[in-house]
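We give this protein:

***
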Amino acid sequence: MREKMRNFFKELGGAGTAVAGLCMMVILGVAALVVDIGHLATVKGELQRAADAGSMAGARALWPTALPIFTNPPAGPDCVSAKGLALSTATSVNNQVDGEVLTAANLTIEVGNYDYATRVFTPKSDCPLTTNAVKVRAQKDVNTIFFASIWNLTSMKPAATATGTMSFAKAVGKGTAPIAINKVFVVPGTQVFISFEQDAMQTGGWFADPPDKANAATFKDYIVNDSCPPLHVGDILKLQNGQDASVMKALKDELQQHPGGWDTFLPVVNTPQFTQEHPIVAFVPLRITHVQDTGNNKGLTGTVLGLSECGAALPGSDVNCGVLAPPKAVE
């Protein structure tokens, strides 16, 4: 009996060696797999960084970087500059992937229109006025792999995609001055005078955002306390005119806080009548340069800016009245 027991354990010892060898192979395979997965994850993250940087730089390059512009704004976005800057940014030494600088062969760069409602990007080869986005796809062959070679896979091709946008403002943040402008007078580089008096073709007038009342108290609160709520294209404004002395003085006092001119972003309405309710159709950048609060010719004088970027604006409008929202990563 004892002899049989010794022989049994001897045989079991040989099997244990085989099992241990098999386990070692599995452990080494899993370790190699972990190395491969970690390496590919790192490369994909670096590709995403390059794609993100390229798409955002490209989106910003759709429009001039020196803002605001007073006159002669570009007729449309600059797609050539956008693609060029997207390429140079994604292939810079700051965006290396797997220890190497990407080349143009690693990238697919498209310009087009991004629909914020459907979240769909549509490439456009002719760079129309609605172009508002740059999409970058970055890909790189990875040849340093271990576990995958068991299945005769000697390389893999991780990729990443990013889309950046820069478009006209669909909304502006809190603090807008209580002045709306007739769209007819939104001409870049022109000087406008708003008298706040009722006439056949008004340049502009006061507004209040319902449920706020269109009166002097509301207008002064908007001016002095920056209390106007955020505004969106399509919001219905209560329009009003009148040369209330206290409101005009508040406007002049605010202008004195801006010696070089008061740059503000105002709602645009498509009507000459400022004694009714009307929706916002866009936003316009205006530099207020003078406020006359006494005498018979009360009003404000300002220059319509061609293009200006509003940091608190939300993108999504195709109406070009000059107010751009900052670049935004959308996917």
In short: The chain has two domains: 2-166, 171-326. The longest helix spans residues 2-60.
